[in-house]
Amino acid sequence: MRSLLFVPGDSERKLEKGFSSGADVVIVDLEDSVSLDDKPRARTIAAAVIAAHRASASAKIYVRINDFSTGLGDDDLAAVVPARPDGIMLPKCNSGADVQRLAGLLRVFEAESGWEDGATAILPIVTETAAGVLSAASYAETTHPRLAGLTWGAEDLATAVGARTNRDERGRYTDVFRLARSLTVLGASHAGVAAIDTVFVDFRDMDGLRAECVEAERDGFTGKMAIHPAQVALINEVFTPSEEAVAHARDVVAAFEQAGNPGVLAIGGKMYDRPHLRGAQRLLARARG
Ligand code: COA
Ligand code: MG
């Protein structure tokens, strides 16, 4: 999961484009990009599009449902689970308990649709409420086999805490949002799942997107969400481990093997111990896709 492209669920035209964008995941959105009046129509379109594409598309298909506080989530699931999406994105997730609650609902809808238990993954957005940010550790306590990763959002959180903006005059996220970002990386690592970076909304600014991707990859995120097809190729590029990084990781793994798997060794005058080995193994797993 390097690139995850949001597509408004009520737009057949954009949905078709989304599947030819090269994104690893197409997220059919039933939440913020669809008006309340359009939700029923978007559910019908989403189900039809998933059914039409799920066999042939190279991308995984996720659906972002409406959060539990809206009372719309059950109808979203009832409409789309029969079409068998690969996963559900849960916005405004408050803690691991919300993941458990969604897993319970999925279990019922999967059984009713004749799909095996656990067929549908869950990707929560964990920083859209203050409670969510403060509960980042809870995803490890309730680690669920359906949990595909954690991702974060800065727009709804600004509204939640009453911040007028989430970036300063230089374009950097302000403290509350940097904390939310950091807690996403820590919460995901604690739960043993992928950390996925949030969207970059200025979709014509490719330099800005690149800078944000590079920073995210450096800090431990392994993918990023997109809102426009033009962002996908760049995200895929930055989150694909480079040939040099792969070659170096191979050297590290080989050195440990040749030395009889010790705790620590030296390569080219530098110390490497178990965390370096684990990091190298993880990078190779990511490079395999
Ligand atoms: N998925 C698929 N196709 C998309 C797309 C997306 N997210 N965003 C744009 N496109 C398509 C457009 O339909 C257009 O195709 P067309 O010329 O055949 O009609 C083409 O790409 C170029 O689009 P462009 O003119 O540059 O942008 P726009 O003004 O049409 O759309 C947005 C801008 C922001 C409205 C649009 O990118 C969008 O809907 N993004 C997703 C929003 C979303 O899901 N938000 C929720 C998560 S934060
Ligand atoms: Mg939102």
Automatic annotation (TrEMBL):
Substrate binds at R64, E128. Mg(2+) binds at E128, D156. Its cofactor is Mg(2+). It holds the Pfam family HpcH_HpaI. GO terms for molecular function: lyase activity; magnesium ion binding. It comes from Oryzicola mucosus. This is CoA ester lyase. It comes from the Bacteria. Signal peptide: none annotated. Keywords: Lyase, Magnesium, Metal-binding. InterPro entries: Aldolase/citrate-lyase_domain, Citrate_lyase_beta/mcl1/mcl2, Pyrv/PenolPyrv_kinase-like_dom, Pyrv_kinase-like_dom_sf. Belongs to the HpcH/HpaI aldolase family. GO terms for biological process: oxaloacetate metabolic process. Residues 2-229 form the HpcH/HpaI aldolase/citrate lyase domain.
